[in-house]
Specification:
The chain is mostly helical. It contains 6 helices and no strands.
Length: 165
Amino acid sequence: MVRAETVFLIDFGLAQLFRNPATYLHVPLSTDSPDIGTLPFLSVNSQRGSTQSRRDDLESLAYTIIYSARGDLPWMSIRADREKILHMKSITAGELCEGLPTPFCKFVSYVRSLGFDKKPDYQYLHSILSQCSLATETGHLDEQRPSLARPRVKSDYTPIFSDRV
């Protein structure tokens, strides 16, 4: 089995500051923000129109990890139906993380629990990902979950852009 030691995920094309550089205060929450990103990977709050913050970046990262590990997300078969996709994203962390190392469910649950301007505990999240890596390396995956097969990753999704730069 060929195994990649490191995966780099970099996309700063739509990056923005989460704090005002002059006041150092968190950007305010708005509930009428446009979608920015790729629909299957948008966080639930972002898809509902909330301003994106660190919690949304982490939720999108979780979706990216799940997609990279399994080659699919539960809502990928639904094309361009925003409401159905949003409804499907409300599945439990356990259902969403099926087939992944058991600790990853804690990652998703923690990220989903974050408030808009709450600073994530990155050390805690890193420790969870380290546990997942160790579980994968040693083969100690949850026996009730199916083993991970090498996924066929598809990349035919078009990002959503707004007039915001």
